[in-house]
Amino acid sequence: MLNGTHYRLILQVIAFIGAVILTGCVSVPDSIKGTTKNPVENLLDVKKMPDLYIGHEGRFGGKVLSVLNEKGRTRLEISTLPLASDAVPLIDNSSLGRLYAYVNSFLEPSDFQDHYVTVVGFITGLEKGKIGDSPYDYVLMNVNGFKLWNEVQRISLAPSTGNIWGYYGNPYFMGWGGSTPILPSHMKDFD
């Protein structure tokens, strides 16, 4: 006869197998795969030695701070964040710096302002600008693909032990009893 400990062990094994299967399914969406095998994703390296990266393909993501429509193109000012293996911005991290991403079409500002995006395209250099009254060098790129992300909340029932991540650090484990804290936000396709 199975007791509570056995049920917990069985559920933990099922949760672990499910997490492994989901991890194996992670891939970069086609719209932001780019044309090279490994686009540059480290904005700090580009800022340190911009001449070395001009003409290289880059993939960056983060929060859109401003949208400026110009004749024939739109400039997105992005506060960049590290990217997950599927190119989703990791929103619980600190900004790596700012980027001007130029898209060769009109983009509706309300669709992008304060949303998260990942862009891919060719790095074209640096542009001097300002953040408030402080001078700032923005990395520039011409975008040939982008992905707008939808922010969703992830909720988990925690065990009564107070560990909000459940057993073994699994955020998807639905524990027994306890409260229902809201965990950090996660990104999801708009599709």
TrEMBL record:
Alphabetized InterPro entries for the sequence: OMP_Slp (IPR004658)
The record's section on NCBIfam families has: slp
List all membrane-crossing ranges: 6-28
Protein name according to UniProt: Membrane protein
- Print the keywords alphabetically: Lipoprotein, Membrane, Transmembrane, Transmembrane helix
Instruction: Give the classification, highest ranks.
Output: Bacteria, Pseudomonadati, Pseudomonadota, Gammaproteobacteria, Enterobacterales
Q: Which domain of life is it from?
A: Bacteria
The GO cellular component terms are: outer membrane
Q: Which organism is it from?
A: Xenorhabdus budapestensis
